[in-house]
Amino acid sequence: MKNARHDFGLLFRSVARRWGVYALMMAGTGLALTLTLIVGLFIHSELSFDRFIRGSDRVYLVSALYGLENKPLVGSDITPAGVARWMRADMAEARQVTRLSPVEWPLSTPRRIARERFFWADPNLFEVLDLPAVAGDLKTALRARDSIVMTQRMARAYFGDQNPLGRSLTTRDNRRLRVTAILRDFPANTHLDRELFVSGGYPYSVLSLHDANPTYLWSICYTYVKLRSDVGPEAVARQLTRLTHQNWQGPNNIPVSYELIALKDLHLHERGDLQMKARGHVDTLLALALVAVVILLIACANYAGLVLAETDERGAEMGLLSALGAGRAHLLATVLRESLIVHLLSLLLALALTERLLPHLNHSLNLDLRLWSAPPGLMGLMLLLTVALALLSALLPAIIVTAPSPVRRARMRTRPPQRWQGWVIAQFTLVISLLIAAQVVSRQWDYALDSAPGFDGQHVAIVDLSDNPWINRAFLNEIRQLKGVDSVAQAFGAPTSNFVRPALVRGKDGRLLSFTRTSVSPEFLGVYGIPLRAGRNLDHTFSEVVAPKDILINETAVRALGFASPREALGHVLGYETDRTHMQSRIIGVVPDIRFSTVHYATPPMMIDGFDRFFTHFSIRVKPSNEAETLRQIDQIWLRHTGGTEPIERQGFRDYLRSQYHDLHQQVAVSRLVAGVAILLSALGLMGLCVFLTRHQSRELAIRKALGAHFGDLLLYRIRPFLLPLLIANIAAWPLAGLVLQQWLETFAAHVTLTPLPFVQASLVTSASALGAILLHAMWSNRRVRIALLRQDV
To answer: 520 forms bridges with which residues in the sheet?
Structure first.
């Protein structure tokens, strides 16, 4: 106990004498641990999607696959309503099946009126999706036709602080919905994008309509099934495919197969058509984990460098302790204990910084990361990581500063620049690599938003159509007259990636090809500035369920069909099957490879027609000169035609596109944050190294100054030892970063090309930050060099 008190007293006296060095240690290590903690919280959030739903490992979303049997074109998160009926009737192992069908209807109370997004839900919903409730009985909550279940947040929005149970909301035709249960608020990391559930037994429910008409087999609902632990999802999917072919009726496209996706795996699964929320990617999590490791290594090297910058002083302290009887093991333990204390204090600093930073990160990245609600396991892991980092950072310095005096002096006779070149090279290499990565990720982000779509979505607003065709017609006619509106088009899905429809085409060589089919009005190409590669545009729309007379195709379709050029495809009559109906249409034009999906997926062969029966939204190009006022006028026109009962659903195309690149946006933000932290850590480490070098070069610097050397001459002398390590670091970092980034870019179907520019810029920024750190220390220590001249032994 006495020895421990003595050691801690020695530590505190050391801190008092060298508080600046300890401040640098804690600042660098604290920043690294802050970034690591944020990355850990994010990875945990991504991996725990939907885990708040009890039994999420046994609940599966049924995904319908369309296209060719051996190579599906698209997987859809929504399925026909009949899928659940067939499973309940003929699959004993999968009878716990339920459905959600998304809808937007007006809902109102005296407190709130909104066009609300909610789900029609089967009465057994909460037997399959075991959501946590705070009031009401979920087992019976949706049995009544007029029942509605909502989260705490929605209850506050519609009823304030009043008890919502038993209260009513008004919807279409002044019909009443009665609140029967309240759910606990959903966390942000769930695939569910709505917080209101209305009984599917409601007379106007689309689920009731489809159950009453078995031939209605278009995809309208999300189907969930809970399986026993002894039942495999692959076997259920195969059996469901057989049931589908046995029971299918009508002309709609039939799924070629199914996939059952566990809710716990859904967020990191491949994208699905009409997915509720943008999904993540495993590559993103691996990249972030790697970045955190690199930052920790830089912090580790910085700490070691700062300790070794004090080698002389620490060696004297160790020599004194040794003279008082302390053994080598005790000396090593003293240095390691100091490191542990510094790192634990840095962890406390990291916790404080993380708590301050998280609100800003959550707001900018649409996250809901919470520090103090993180699981104990994550905090325990951070504590173990901090202890491991403390031992790793201090082990080599401890061995050096506790070495016997003759050994230490022999080591010190080696020229300092030569001794530390390896550390400087490693640090510069990591920093340059991170800066290159930050720039390439940013370029890929800009490419995904600007160039990859292949059309101009700037200043285009997307407005969802009303269910009332008279409102749509009147709204369209009036907004076309606005001075601030350039042009207006209608479309089914496009330019979003929703409502993908497959078409099977027989190529010239007899191969069966999967095309996507989309329907637009003739104004669509003009609104989005899409040029024609050959031929002419569509000139009309049609509502009858007949084969389109004329179609457009993209350049990928031209190549898939075996044509040598777009012009050669013009006039060709294309035979294809869609909605289980054989059709023939004439190709009248070819458009470029416009992209409605994200850059993660290749652009498929596409055909475009003018079938207008199921148009889903308007695309409105607004003149940029007075965009805000024009959008306000559009909103007012909508509210006037709907009588205020249906708030407008409007978003900019660029906003929609950003929402589809949620994970890439996160990578961009994190890479920029990491680049800033890496530069700061590098500067802190160089400050420590400059202190070390200055102490070893103080005699020579003082002599040079006495002989008339100016500040610039001394600065050049200080910089010279870093030039070769900086050059070697560039030679090492460029191929290393290039190899890793090329592999990362190849995870995208469309990506930027690696060019020398980000490599050169990263080298320049690293060099500038290094020179800046050396310059600042040189200015600060210039006066001390003059004093050293007077005090140095001759």
So the answer is: 491
CB distance 180 to 148 below 8 Å = yes
For 492, the 3-state DSSP assignment is strand
Taking the C-alpha atoms of residue 194 and residue 731, their distance in angstroms, rounded to an integer, is 52
pLDDT in tens, 558-600: 999 989 999 999 999 998 887 777 889 999 999 999 998 888 8
Q: Whole-angstrom Cα distance, residue 104 to residue 114?
A: 10
For residues 129 and 59, the answer to whether their CB atoms sit within 8 Å is yes
248 phi, psi to nearest 5 deg: -70, 140
| Structure token pair of residue 535 | 């031929």
Contact 144, 120 (CB under 8 A): no
Radius of gyration of the CA atoms of the chain, in A: 33
pLDDT > 90: what percent of the chain?
31
Model pLDDT for residues 189-216, shown as the tens digit of each residue = 899 999 999 999 887 788 888 888 888 8
- Report the C-alpha gap between 737 and 436 in whole angstroms: 7
701, two tokens:
């610097």
Q: What is the pLDDT of residue 132?
A: 94
Token pair 């082990």 is at which residue?
395
pLDDT at residue 760, rounded to an integer: 92
Q: 464: closest CA among 584, 619, 606?
A: 619
Q: Are 292 and 430 in contact, with CB atoms under 8 Å apart?
A: no
Q: How far apart are CA 107 and CA 646, in angstroms?
A: 9
Pairing of strands 79-80, 219-226: antiparallel
Assign residue 515 a region: left if phi > 0, alpha if psi is -120 to 50, beta otherwise?
beta
Question: Residue 522 has which token pair?
Answer: 């003739």
Tokens of 527: 């609104």
Of 510, 494, 717, 528, the residue nearest 611 (C-alpha) = 494
How many other β-carbons are positioned within 10 Å of the β-carbon of residue 269? 20
The continuous run of DSSP H or E covering 678 comes out as helix 662-706
CB atoms within 10 A of CB 138: 20
Q: CA end-to-end span of the chain, whole Å? A: 45
